[in-house]
Amino acid sequence: MAASALSKVESVGVNLSNALEDRGLRRTATRMTVTGRIEQLNGAFTAEQLCRDLPGVGRATVYRTIRHLVDAGALCKLPILDGAPMYSIARIEHHHHTICSSCGAVGEFRHSTVERVMRSLAKEIDGDIVGHRMEIFITCNSCLAESATGKFSVHV
Amino acid sequence: MAASALSKVESVGVNLSNALEDRGLRRTATRMTVTGRIEQLNGAFTAEQLCRDLPGVGRATVYRTIRHLVDAGALCKLPILDGAPMYSIARIEHHHHTICSSCGAVGEFRHSTVERVMRSLAKEIDGDIVGHRMEIFITCNSCLAESATGKFSVHV
DNA sequence: GTGCTTGCAAAGAATTTGCATAATT
DNA sequence: AATTATGCAAATTCTTTGCAAGCAC
Protein backbone atom coordinates (compact mmCIF):
# COMPACT_ATOMS: atom_id res chain seq x y z
CA MET A 1 0.00 0.00 0.00
CA ALA A 2 1.29 3.45 -0.90
CA ALA A 3 1.54 6.02 1.87
CA SER A 4 0.83 9.20 -0.08
CA ALA A 5 -2.39 11.03 0.75
CA LEU A 6 -3.78 8.32 2.98
CA SER A 7 -2.73 8.47 6.58
CA LYS A 8 -3.20 5.20 8.39
CA VAL A 9 -4.30 5.72 11.96
CA GLU A 10 -1.79 4.69 14.59
CA SER A 11 -2.33 4.40 18.31
CA VAL A 12 -1.93 7.82 19.90
CA GLY A 13 -1.88 6.80 23.52
CA VAL A 14 -5.59 6.88 24.09
CA ASN A 15 -6.53 6.39 27.70
CA LEU A 16 -10.12 5.43 28.11
CA SER A 17 -10.28 5.46 31.88
CA ASN A 18 -8.95 9.00 31.85
CA ALA A 19 -11.68 9.93 29.41
CA LEU A 20 -14.22 8.71 31.97
CA GLU A 21 -12.54 10.54 34.84
CA ASP A 22 -12.53 13.70 32.80
CA ARG A 23 -16.28 13.44 32.71
CA GLY A 24 -16.44 13.33 36.50
CA LEU A 25 -17.06 9.59 36.68
CA ARG A 26 -15.48 7.46 39.37
CA ARG A 27 -12.44 5.32 38.73
CA THR A 28 -13.81 1.92 39.68
CA ALA A 29 -12.30 -1.52 39.29
CA THR A 30 -15.12 -2.56 36.97
CA ARG A 31 -14.59 0.38 34.65
CA MET A 32 -10.86 -0.29 34.57
CA THR A 33 -11.63 -3.85 33.57
CA VAL A 34 -13.91 -2.75 30.74
CA THR A 35 -11.68 -0.01 29.39
CA GLY A 36 -8.63 -2.25 29.74
CA ARG A 37 -10.26 -4.92 27.65
CA ILE A 38 -11.29 -2.43 24.98
CA GLU A 39 -7.74 -1.12 24.80
CA GLN A 40 -6.27 -4.56 24.44
CA LEU A 41 -8.63 -5.44 21.60
CA ASN A 42 -6.92 -4.08 18.55
CA GLY A 43 -10.02 -3.36 16.51
CA ALA A 44 -13.72 -2.73 16.60
CA PHE A 45 -16.01 -4.73 18.84
CA THR A 46 -19.64 -5.16 19.77
CA ALA A 47 -21.21 -4.78 23.20
CA GLU A 48 -22.06 -8.45 23.13
CA GLN A 49 -18.46 -9.41 22.45
CA LEU A 50 -17.30 -7.36 25.40
CA CYS A 51 -19.86 -9.06 27.63
CA ARG A 52 -18.60 -12.45 26.51
CA ASP A 53 -14.99 -11.47 27.13
CA LEU A 54 -15.77 -10.15 30.59
CA PRO A 55 -18.15 -12.60 32.24
CA GLY A 56 -17.38 -11.02 35.60
CA VAL A 57 -18.95 -7.72 34.54
CA GLY A 58 -22.70 -7.28 34.29
CA ARG A 59 -24.24 -6.59 30.89
CA ALA A 60 -25.78 -3.36 32.10
CA THR A 61 -22.41 -2.06 33.22
CA VAL A 62 -20.80 -2.93 29.92
CA TYR A 63 -23.52 -1.05 28.05
CA ARG A 64 -23.39 1.88 30.45
CA THR A 65 -19.62 2.14 30.19
CA ILE A 66 -19.73 2.03 26.41
CA ARG A 67 -22.30 4.78 26.40
CA HIS A 68 -20.17 6.96 28.65
CA LEU A 69 -17.19 6.44 26.37
CA VAL A 70 -19.21 7.33 23.30
CA ASP A 71 -20.56 10.43 25.02
CA ALA A 72 -17.01 11.34 25.96
CA GLY A 73 -15.99 11.03 22.33
CA ALA A 74 -13.46 8.32 23.20
CA LEU A 75 -15.30 5.66 21.23
CA CYS A 76 -17.13 5.95 17.99
CA LYS A 77 -20.21 3.95 17.33
CA LEU A 78 -20.61 2.63 13.87
CA PRO A 79 -23.94 1.36 12.70
CA ILE A 80 -23.94 -1.99 10.96
CA LEU A 81 -26.63 -2.61 8.39
CA ASP A 82 -27.78 -5.88 9.91
CA GLY A 83 -27.04 -6.42 13.53
CA ALA A 84 -25.58 -4.71 16.53
CA PRO A 85 -23.48 -1.56 16.15
CA MET A 86 -19.73 -1.82 16.51
CA TYR A 87 -17.48 0.47 18.48
CA SER A 88 -13.91 1.50 17.94
CA ILE A 89 -11.54 3.77 19.76
CA ALA A 90 -11.58 7.26 18.30
CA ARG A 91 -7.85 7.76 18.02
CA ILE A 92 -8.06 10.81 15.85
CA GLU A 93 -10.66 13.47 15.74
CA HIS A 94 -12.17 12.78 12.36
CA HIS A 95 -11.78 9.62 10.38
CA HIS A 96 -13.63 7.05 8.35
CA HIS A 97 -13.82 3.31 8.51
CA THR A 98 -13.04 0.35 6.35
CA ILE A 99 -15.19 -2.66 7.13
CA CYS A 100 -14.32 -6.10 5.84
CA SER A 101 -17.51 -7.54 4.40
CA SER A 102 -16.24 -10.99 5.10
CA CYS A 103 -14.86 -10.97 8.63
CA GLY A 104 -16.17 -7.63 9.89
CA ALA A 105 -12.73 -6.27 10.74
CA VAL A 106 -12.83 -2.51 11.04
CA GLY A 107 -10.00 -0.15 10.19
CA GLU A 108 -9.74 3.60 10.45
CA PHE A 109 -8.40 5.95 7.84
CA ARG A 110 -8.30 9.57 6.99
CA HIS A 111 -7.91 10.98 3.54
CA SER A 112 -7.50 14.63 2.79
CA THR A 113 -9.25 14.29 -0.55
CA VAL A 114 -12.42 13.10 1.13
CA GLU A 115 -12.45 16.20 3.27
CA ARG A 116 -11.76 18.38 0.26
CA VAL A 117 -14.66 16.84 -1.59
CA MET A 118 -16.88 17.57 1.38
CA ARG A 119 -15.96 21.21 1.20
CA SER A 120 -16.78 21.37 -2.47
CA LEU A 121 -20.11 19.64 -1.89
CA ALA A 122 -20.98 22.18 0.77
CA LYS A 123 -21.62 24.78 -1.90
CA GLU A 124 -24.05 22.58 -3.72
CA ILE A 125 -26.11 20.81 -1.09
CA ASP A 126 -29.30 22.36 0.20
CA GLY A 127 -29.00 23.35 3.83
CA ASP A 128 -25.96 23.47 6.11
CA ILE A 129 -23.62 20.52 6.24
CA VAL A 130 -23.02 19.58 9.87
CA GLY A 131 -21.03 16.40 9.37
CA HIS A 132 -20.54 13.33 7.29
CA ARG A 133 -19.78 9.66 7.57
CA MET A 134 -18.16 7.33 5.11
CA GLU A 135 -17.52 3.63 5.21
CA ILE A 136 -15.56 1.66 2.69
CA PHE A 137 -16.47 -1.98 2.45
CA ILE A 138 -13.54 -4.17 1.63
CA THR A 139 -12.45 -7.76 1.55
CA CYS A 140 -9.41 -7.60 3.76
CA ASN A 141 -6.16 -9.25 2.84
CA SER A 142 -6.52 -12.14 5.25
CA CYS A 143 -10.00 -12.90 3.98
CA LEU A 144 -8.77 -12.67 0.40
CA ALA A 145 -6.16 -15.22 1.36
CA GLU A 146 -8.74 -17.53 2.83
CA SER A 147 -11.33 -16.56 0.20
CA ALA A 148 -13.92 -16.72 2.95
CA THR A 149 -17.61 -16.28 2.20
CA GLY A 150 -19.42 -13.02 3.05
CA LYS A 151 -21.15 -12.63 6.37
CA PHE A 152 -21.81 -8.91 6.62
CA SER A 153 -24.29 -6.94 4.56
CA VAL A 154 -22.95 -4.35 2.22
CA HIS A 155 -24.62 -1.26 0.90
CA VAL A 156 -23.04 -0.90 -2.52
CA MET B 1 -27.92 25.56 -5.36
CA ALA B 2 -25.62 25.13 -8.32
CA ALA B 3 -26.26 22.23 -10.66
CA SER B 4 -22.71 21.50 -11.80
CA ALA B 5 -21.23 18.19 -10.73
CA LEU B 6 -24.01 17.28 -8.35
CA SER B 7 -26.95 15.54 -9.91
CA LYS B 8 -30.05 15.72 -7.79
CA VAL B 9 -32.06 12.55 -7.96
CA GLU B 10 -35.45 12.84 -9.58
CA SER B 11 -38.21 10.27 -9.67
CA VAL B 12 -37.51 7.84 -12.49
CA GLY B 13 -40.81 6.02 -12.54
CA VAL B 14 -39.94 3.41 -9.94
CA ASN B 15 -42.57 0.76 -9.62
CA LEU B 16 -42.24 -1.17 -6.42
CA SER B 17 -44.95 -3.72 -7.07
CA ASN B 18 -43.28 -4.60 -10.34
CA ALA B 19 -40.05 -5.08 -8.48
CA LEU B 20 -41.80 -7.65 -6.32
CA GLU B 21 -43.39 -9.40 -9.29
CA ASP B 22 -40.01 -9.56 -10.98
CA ARG B 23 -38.86 -11.63 -8.06
CA GLY B 24 -41.65 -14.10 -8.60
CA LEU B 25 -43.77 -12.83 -5.73
CA ARG B 26 -47.54 -12.63 -6.03
CA ARG B 27 -49.36 -9.38 -6.70
CA THR B 28 -51.60 -9.19 -3.66
CA ALA B 29 -53.85 -6.41 -2.45
CA THR B 30 -51.83 -6.09 0.73
CA ARG B 31 -48.56 -5.68 -1.13
CA MET B 32 -50.13 -3.07 -3.40
CA THR B 33 -51.23 -1.18 -0.31
CA VAL B 34 -47.75 -1.23 1.18
CA THR B 35 -45.88 -0.33 -2.00
CA GLY B 36 -48.48 2.31 -2.81
CA ARG B 37 -47.95 3.98 0.52
CA ILE B 38 -44.18 3.91 0.17
CA GLU B 39 -44.44 5.50 -3.26
CA GLN B 40 -46.70 8.27 -2.02
CA LEU B 41 -44.34 9.11 0.84
CA ASN B 42 -41.84 11.46 -0.71
CA GLY B 43 -38.89 10.60 1.48
CA ALA B 44 -37.36 8.03 3.75
CA PHE B 45 -39.43 6.18 6.31
CA THR B 46 -39.17 3.62 9.07
CA ALA B 47 -40.97 0.29 9.31
CA GLU B 48 -42.78 1.59 12.35
CA GLN B 49 -44.04 4.62 10.47
CA LEU B 50 -45.40 2.42 7.71
CA CYS B 51 -47.20 0.27 10.27
CA ARG B 52 -48.77 3.37 11.77
CA ASP B 53 -49.85 4.64 8.36
CA LEU B 54 -51.37 1.30 7.41
CA PRO B 55 -53.24 -0.02 10.44
CA GLY B 56 -55.04 -2.49 8.21
CA VAL B 57 -51.82 -4.30 7.39
CA GLY B 58 -50.12 -6.58 9.90
CA ARG B 59 -46.69 -5.65 11.22
CA ALA B 60 -45.18 -8.89 10.00
CA THR B 61 -46.36 -8.21 6.48
CA VAL B 62 -44.96 -4.71 6.52
CA TYR B 63 -41.57 -6.01 7.64
CA ARG B 64 -41.68 -8.88 5.16
CA THR B 65 -42.58 -6.60 2.28
CA ILE B 66 -39.82 -4.17 3.15
CA ARG B 67 -37.34 -7.01 3.25
CA HIS B 68 -38.42 -8.21 -0.16
CA LEU B 69 -38.03 -4.74 -1.58
CA VAL B 70 -34.57 -4.37 -0.08
CA ASP B 71 -33.59 -7.78 -1.44
CA ALA B 72 -34.92 -6.71 -4.83
CA GLY B 73 -32.76 -3.60 -4.67
CA ALA B 74 -35.82 -1.36 -4.91
CA LEU B 75 -35.34 0.09 -1.45
CA CYS B 76 -32.17 0.96 0.31
CA LYS B 77 -31.84 0.50 4.01
CA LEU B 78 -29.92 3.13 5.81
CA PRO B 79 -28.69 2.54 9.31
CA ILE B 80 -29.38 5.28 11.82
CA LEU B 81 -26.96 5.70 14.68
CA ASP B 82 -29.62 5.58 17.35
CA GLY B 83 -32.81 3.89 16.48
CA ALA B 84 -34.54 1.97 13.75
CA PRO B 85 -33.11 1.96 10.22
CA MET B 86 -34.76 4.07 7.57
CA TYR B 87 -35.63 3.04 4.06
CA SER B 88 -35.80 5.02 0.87
CA ILE B 89 -36.61 4.17 -2.70
CA ALA B 90 -33.47 3.40 -4.67
CA ARG B 91 -34.21 5.53 -7.70
CA ILE B 92 -30.75 5.31 -9.12
CA GLU B 93 -28.27 2.53 -8.91
CA HIS B 94 -25.64 4.12 -6.74
CA HIS B 95 -26.12 7.17 -4.63
CA HIS B 96 -25.53 8.64 -1.22
CA HIS B 97 -27.79 10.26 1.31
CA THR B 98 -28.18 13.54 3.04
CA ILE B 99 -29.82 13.25 6.43
CA CYS B 100 -31.17 16.27 8.24
CA SER B 101 -29.91 16.04 11.81
CA SER B 102 -32.88 18.00 12.96
CA CYS B 103 -35.93 16.51 11.26
CA GLY B 104 -34.45 13.30 9.85
CA ALA B 105 -35.41 14.10 6.27
CA VAL B 106 -33.40 12.03 3.86
CA GLY B 107 -32.30 13.09 0.39
CA GLU B 108 -30.38 11.24 -2.27
CA PHE B 109 -27.51 12.59 -4.29
CA ARG B 110 -24.78 11.43 -6.55
CA HIS B 111 -21.52 13.22 -7.10
CA SER B 112 -18.97 12.16 -9.64
CA THR B 113 -16.12 13.46 -7.51
CA VAL B 114 -17.04 11.10 -4.69
CA GLU B 115 -16.78 8.16 -7.06
CA ARG B 116 -13.52 9.46 -8.43
CA VAL B 117 -12.10 9.70 -4.93
CA MET B 118 -13.14 6.13 -4.30
CA ARG B 119 -11.19 5.00 -7.32
CA SER B 120 -8.10 6.81 -6.11
CA LEU B 121 -8.48 5.33 -2.64
CA ALA B 122 -8.67 1.85 -4.14
CA LYS B 123 -4.97 1.94 -4.85
CA GLU B 124 -4.11 2.75 -1.28
CA ILE B 125 -6.43 0.69 0.88
CA ASP B 126 -5.42 -2.77 2.00
CA GLY B 127 -7.61 -5.44 0.46
CA ASP B 128 -10.23 -5.17 -2.28
CA ILE B 129 -12.84 -2.43 -2.13
CA VAL B 130 -16.26 -3.97 -2.63
CA GLY B 131 -18.40 -0.93 -1.95
CA HIS B 132 -18.81 2.21 0.04
CA ARG B 133 -21.41 4.25 1.81
CA MET B 134 -21.51 7.93 2.57
CA GLU B 135 -23.93 10.05 4.46
CA ILE B 136 -23.87 13.79 4.72
CA PHE B 137 -25.53 15.19 7.80
CA ILE B 138 -27.19 18.50 7.20
CA THR B 139 -29.59 20.93 8.72
CA CYS B 140 -32.13 21.21 5.95
CA ASN B 141 -33.47 24.52 4.77
CA SER B 142 -36.83 24.17 6.46
CA CYS B 143 -35.20 23.31 9.78
CA LEU B 144 -32.84 26.25 9.37
CA ALA B 145 -35.91 28.40 8.90
CA GLU B 146 -37.52 27.06 12.04
CA SER B 147 -34.15 26.78 13.82
CA ALA B 148 -35.41 23.53 15.30
CA THR B 149 -33.38 21.65 17.90
CA GLY B 150 -31.54 18.45 16.98
CA LYS B 151 -33.21 15.11 17.42
CA PHE B 152 -30.97 12.76 15.47
CA SER B 153 -27.48 11.68 16.44
CA VAL B 154 -24.66 12.74 14.22
CA HIS B 155 -21.30 11.11 13.72
CA VAL B 156 -19.09 14.08 12.97
C1' DG C 1 -56.46 -27.34 -5.65
C1' DT C 2 -51.73 -26.18 -4.48
C1' DG C 3 -48.70 -23.27 -2.69
C1' DC C 4 -47.66 -18.55 -1.48
C1' DT C 5 -49.57 -14.84 1.84
C1' DT C 6 -51.44 -12.87 5.82
C1' DG C 7 -52.19 -11.70 10.59
C1' DC C 8 -51.85 -12.83 15.08
C1' DA C 9 -49.33 -13.90 18.90
C1' DA C 10 -45.23 -15.73 20.65
C1' DA C 11 -40.34 -15.80 20.30
C1' DG C 12 -35.89 -13.43 19.68
C1' DA C 13 -32.23 -10.16 19.83
C1' DA C 14 -30.33 -5.92 21.57
C1' DT C 15 -30.50 -2.52 24.92
C1' DT C 16 -32.31 0.09 28.89
C1' DT C 17 -34.18 0.68 33.49
C1' DG C 18 -35.69 -0.07 38.49
C1' DC C 19 -33.90 -1.16 42.59
C1' DA C 20 -31.41 -3.07 46.44
C1' DT C 21 -26.55 -3.75 47.49
C1' DA C 22 -21.71 -2.49 47.22
C1' DA C 23 -17.94 0.57 46.43
C1' DT C 24 -15.77 5.32 45.80
C1' DT C 25 -14.72 9.83 47.28
C1' DA D 1 -21.71 9.75 55.36
C1' DA D 2 -23.18 10.96 50.96
C1' DT D 3 -23.33 9.71 46.50
C1' DT D 4 -22.28 7.07 42.56
C1' DA D 5 -21.74 2.38 40.57
C1' DT D 6 -23.01 -2.43 40.03
C1' DG D 7 -25.64 -6.53 38.98
C1' DC D 8 -29.69 -8.77 38.52
C1' DA D 9 -33.99 -9.24 36.52
C1' DA D 10 -37.76 -7.12 34.39
C1' DA D 11 -39.14 -3.97 30.89
C1' DT D 12 -38.54 -1.90 26.18
C1' DT D 13 -37.86 -1.66 21.45
C1' DC D 14 -37.39 -3.55 17.05
C1' DT D 15 -37.82 -7.53 14.24
C1' DT D 16 -38.60 -12.37 13.03
C1' DT D 17 -41.09 -16.76 13.16
C1' DG D 18 -44.72 -20.52 13.80
C1' DC D 19 -48.99 -21.51 12.41
C1' DA D 20 -53.84 -21.72 10.92
C1' DA D 21 -56.80 -19.47 7.73
C1' DG D 22 -57.17 -16.89 3.30
C1' DC D 23 -55.89 -15.72 -1.45
C1' DA D 24 -53.45 -15.90 -6.01
C1' DC D 25 -52.38 -18.45 -9.85
Distance between the termini of chain A: 23 Å
**Helical amount of chain A:** 25-40%
Overall geometry of chain A: globular
Oligomer: homodimer
In this structure, how is the largest beta sheet of chain A organized? 4 strands, mixed
SS strand fraction of chain A: 15-25%
**Total beta-strand segments of chain A:** 6
Question: Helix count of chain A, per DSSP?
Answer: 6
* Mean pLDDT rating of chain A: 83
Look at the structure and name the CATH superfamily of the largest domain in chain A. Winged helix-like DNA-binding domain superfamily/Winged helix DNA-binding domain
Q: Could you tell me which chain pair has the largest interface and how many residues each side has?
A: A-B, 49 and 49 residues
The assigned structural class of chain A equals alpha+beta
Q: Secondary-structure map with pairings?
A:
The structure is a homodimer of 156-residue chains.
Chain A: E1 6-8, H1 16-22, H2 29-40, H3 47-53, H4 59-71, E2 75-78, E3 86-89, E4 96-100, E5 106-111, H5 112-122, E6 128-139, H6 141-146
Chain A binds a DNA duplex (25 and 25 nucleotides) through helix 2 and helix 4.
